[in-house]
């Protein structure tokens, strides 16, 4: 009797339940299935994707864990309002990432001032330690709720150009690309956690000592020159970063 072996999907091909999951996620996010609408039955989804019911159930369970759908016993599966989450593997502004998910994004300009770079920021931005930087502090408000505080440092010349920009309603990346004709390239990102102090909690309307997700991001122009450095502090109870990682050098299982 031959032993049955399991072969992984071909390189670049997603497992069936992930293909169904990604297909349904796309429809949930593009409005094909608007919030509170009922998704097709499991039987109908099996026919649409040409997969088994267990595969459909795996996909729906994963989407429910993401907060994109809710299964109600005896009634079916319903679309939910997408949770606030951003793909950390893509260089995007906050509003740029949130608006397509149906969220309303507003900014509150907290401060705009000039500071001396100092050794740490100067090293990151490849400037003299005595160089002046514009420090821009903004509260990001998502669907009426303060969700993050963003501190951005840019060289003085760039800061002067941004001083007259609509920082209360536009993403900084959008301003740089469309008004300043700056070609953004990539960013180095570090993700850590910390406890919010009283000043931050006043801005984010949380309790002192609440956990926050800290994102440190050094953004480069397309040519490789450091452009800006920013620290983003998100309320951990209201936001999450996501990314997909693929296994490299995957080989077939042997019998």
From TrEMBL:
Domain HTH gntR-type, first and last residues per copy? 14-82
Listed SUPFAM superfamilies: Chorismate lyase-like (SSF64288), Winged helix' DNA-binding domain (SSF46785)
Entry's Gene Ontology molecular function annotations: DNA binding; DNA-binding transcription factor activity
Transcription regulation recorded as keyword: yes
On whether Acetylation is a keyword of this UniProt record, the answer is: no
User: Which UniProt key words apply to this protein?
Assistant: DNA-binding, Transcription, Transcription regulation
**CDD domains attached here?**
WHTH_GntR (cd07377)
GO BP field: negative regulation of DNA-templated transcription
Which InterPro entries does the entry link to? Bact_HTH_transcr_reg, Chorismate_lyase_/UTRA_dom_sf, Tscrpt_reg_HTH_GntR, UTRA, WH-like_DNA-bd_sf, WH_DNA-bd_sf
Which protein are we looking at?
Transcriptional regulator, GntR family
| The organism of origin for this protein | Orrella dioscoreae
């Amino acid at each position: 009797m031959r032993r049955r072996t399991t072969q992984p999907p071909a390189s670049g091909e997603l497992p069936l339940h992930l293909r169904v999951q990604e297909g349904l996620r796309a429809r949930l996010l593009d409005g094909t299935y608007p919030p509170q609408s009922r998704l097709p039955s499991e039987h109908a989804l099996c026919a649409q994707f040409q997969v088994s019911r267990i595969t459909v159930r795996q996909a729906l369970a994963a989407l429910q864990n993401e907060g994109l759908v809710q299964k109600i016993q005896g009634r079916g599966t319903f679309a939910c309002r997408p949770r606030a989450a951003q793909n950390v593997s893509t260089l995007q502004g906050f509003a740029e990432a949130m608006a397509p998910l149906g969220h309303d994004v507003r900014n509150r300009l907290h401060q705009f001032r000039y500071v001396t770079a100092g050794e740490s920021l100067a090293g990151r931005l490849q400037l003299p330690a005595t160089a002046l930087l514009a420090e821009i502090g903004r509260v990001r408000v998502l669907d009426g709720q303060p969700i993050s505080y963003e501190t951005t440092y840019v060289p003085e010349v760039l800061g002067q150009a941004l001083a007259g920009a609509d920082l209360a309603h536009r993403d900084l990346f959008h301003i740089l690309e469309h008004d300043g004709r700056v070609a953004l390239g990539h960013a180095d990102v570090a993700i850590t956690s910390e406890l919010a102090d009283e000043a931050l909690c006043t801005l984010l309307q949380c309790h002192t000592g609440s956990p926050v997700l800290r994102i440190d991001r050094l953004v480069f122009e397309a040519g490789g020159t450091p452009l800006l450095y920013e620290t983003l502090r998100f309320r951990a109870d209201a936001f999450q970063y996501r990314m997909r990682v693929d296994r490299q050098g995957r080989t077939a299982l042997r019998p």
